[in-house]
Amino acid sequence: MSVKAEPSARYPRSAAVSRVRPWAVACVVFVVAEVTVRAYWIAGGRWGYTACDRTDLVDPTGGCGANRVETLPFWAGWGAVGVAAALAVLVLYTVRFPCRHVVAGSWVAAVLLLVLAFPLHLLFEIPAALAGRPSDWRDLGTRLALAAGGLLFAGLANACAPQRVVRAADYRTVPRWTRRWAYTAVALPVVGWAVPHGLWALGVAFGIPQRQLDDIHRNLSTWTGAAVTLVPPLAGLLVLGLAQRWGQQIPRWVPGLRGRPVPRLLAVVPAGVVALTLATYGVLSIAVLVRQVLTGDTHWSEVREGWAVTATLLVFVGWGVALGVTTAGYAITTRPRQEQATNAELSRG
């Protein structure tokens, strides 16, 4: 009769506490800061609050009339406080019982916060804001805070994982189909995003009417156009890590972490969130366009004249699917060996 090892046996308490405590403290700071800000909004303050997603006013730098909002939406106020309280309970339980029954909860919290941050929005808006385009700094600050919180909770979950060093023999080559999808995920933003946007920045009306090109040059500076064109495909290069050794083992040139394994979920969760975000954005945008055509708000002639813009929406769908399949291949390849052996036995049986 075998006895199942308790989590405390797999993770000595002293070692677990030393690994978990810094992450737990950082998570507590994040939760306290969020509760403080939300309580300030509930009390009537509006510094840092934005209403650009729920008003018709056009003033991104001023929060779109945030000071005029009298009733705070539930999820911006008490709803967010409730979620923060649940996260606080999770952190306190982690400190009291290090690495016991909390890893899944920490990963769920990380995914939730990253989804709420909507990284795709940050990917486009931050370069544009740095290039001088008027931006809603309140919204960007909130999203950056949520993204930071997601990374902190991911670090908290990873701190509970057994610490080991990956040997060369531990590297697992991903299947050929995974590499092909990874290359597709890299090529799509280059061909379907960087090329047309680069041409538009250079003044070439590729797949759009001349009046739309004039609007682009009137509203975007040179630096903003360059950032919007180059940042997405450069960020897309990270997907190669899911098909290369540096996606499983931290390179030797990284000080302090050289040779250590890349936490499996730390690669899978962000990639999965981005893949879902890309595909969802593309599908929803296409649905909105179809509805506008059916209601007569947009004519087929306009769609044909601006076919490159419509094709960009398809690029988002394809980019998300390619990244999602690549992530699935990485997740399958890097499963614990015991799980792989069990699945192999079941398939033979």
From TrEMBL:
Residue intervals passing through the bilayer: 20-41, 75-95, 102-124, 144-161, 181-208, 220-243, 264-287, 307-332
Keyword Aminoacyl-tRNA synthetase assigned: no
Keyword set includes Transmembrane: yes
UniProt keyword annotations, A-Z: Membrane, Transmembrane, Transmembrane helix
Protein name: Uncharacterized protein
